[in-house]
Amino acid sequence: MSVDFIARLVGMITFSIIGVYWGTYLGRLANTTTGPFPFTVEQYAFTIGMVGALAGLILTPFITTRPIKALRAQLSRLSARSLFASLVGLVVGLVIAALLAFPLSLLPDPFGQILPFFGVVLFGYLGVAVFIVRQDDMFNILQGMRGGAPAVQPEAEGGSNWGEGRTILLDTSVIIDGRIADIARTGFLPGSLLIPRFVLTELQYIADSSDSLRRQRGRRGMEVLAQLQREPSIPVRITDIDVEGTRDVDDKLVILARQMRCPILTNDFNLNRVAELQGVTILNINELANAVKSVLLPGEMLSVRVIQEGKEAGQGVGYMEDGTMVVVENGREYIDREINVLVTKVLQTAAGRMIFARPDRD
């Protein structure tokens, strides 16, 4: 049985008992006066008791389980930092209100009775609001006091690095891609990698797909995730934090990243665009791969192996070690041979960098 059903049963019994007592009281009150009455005390008690049972069956979830679920949903959307800052702000506001309660109570009525309560509400709200707005400054001060230096400065060698407290959300696509394991192993991703439970659920759904290709991609993602967890130098955390109000994984990631103020690591083009429109920082692996490719200028020499024909007549196509395509003019006759070529033009496209070259005749 669900909690909601149990709450309805308890509410039905409680309200029916209250209805019986109330009906008994009203029946006795009605029958003590003179004049004919069509209902007896028992009939009053039974009727109002049944009304109370029906009201308890219908209204109990709205005053018990529903508010609790709504409160849990709101708390799950808050990051631990925001929750801690709001709690500290509430305590500080209540302490200030308590200090002011005594002098305010000495004022003449009705101010002496109203202002202490009003001060508790006002200062409690102001404490939470101020500490939520300035939570980053507060945590920077605490980190600086703990480390003996400002939090923005790196600590001495052997201490924690500047990215120790950083969190990076992982998308399903970047786990399936697999390159995240090699990148994280190099140390270019400071901080901990956070994987929400709903991302794991989507990954498991892909791994259990009836389509063989999707199933292979999902299982590859599971292997990559297991590889990440085995690396002691890569902190990987799995969180049960969920986002209510939406079922789409990309939307949940964007909302969660905004609440936690952390970037999303992905190679999904659509998620990249949606997140940028909402002010969320995106770390795109494809953009990183294009950024670290070799930079060549027209007139430079390189060695390339021509492996196939190009689209135009006489062209040959080869690839550099980083995957950059090299189109060799009049390179058809050099297929399956490694030759030195002279770069004539470098073209940057949406798919990556393309290099045009011609054989070096010298």
Keywords, separated by commas or semicolons:
5-stranded mixed β-barrel; 362 residues
Mean pLDDT: 82
What is the radius of gyration? 34 Å
CATH structural architecture of the largest domain: 3-Layer(aba) Sandwich
Helix proportion: 55-70%
What is the β-strand count?
10
CATH class type of the largest domain: Alpha Beta
Adjacency order of strands in the biggest sheet: 3-2-1-4-5
Measured between the Cα atoms of the first and last residue, the distance is: 85 Å
Indicate the low-confidence ranges by residue numbers.
148-162
**Dominant shape:** elongated
CATH topology group of the largest domain:
Rossmann fold
Structure write-up:
- The protein is α/β, with parallel strands linked by helices and 362 residues long.
- It has four domains: 3-68, no CATH class; 83-152, no CATH class; 167-290, Rossmann fold (3-Layer(aba) Sandwich), CATH 3.40.50.1010; 301-359, Beta Barrel (OB fold (Dihydrolipoamide Acetyltransferase, E2P)), CATH 2.40.50.
- The chain contains 13 helices and ten strands.
- The protein has helices spanning 3-32, 41-63, 65-77, 80-105, 111-133, 135-147, 172-177, 179-186, 197-207, 212-230, 249-260, 269-277, 285-291, and strands spanning 167-170, 192-196, 236-239, 264-266, 282-284, 301-309, 316-319, 325-328, 337-349, 352-359.
- It has a five-stranded parallel beta sheet. A five-stranded mixed barrel has the order 6-7-8-10-9.
- Strand 6 (301-309) and strand 7 (316-319) form a beta hairpin.
- Helix 1 runs antiparallel to helix 2 (41-63) and helix 4 runs antiparallel to helix 5.
- The N and C termini lie far apart (85 Å).
- Mean pLDDT is 82; it is low at 148-162.
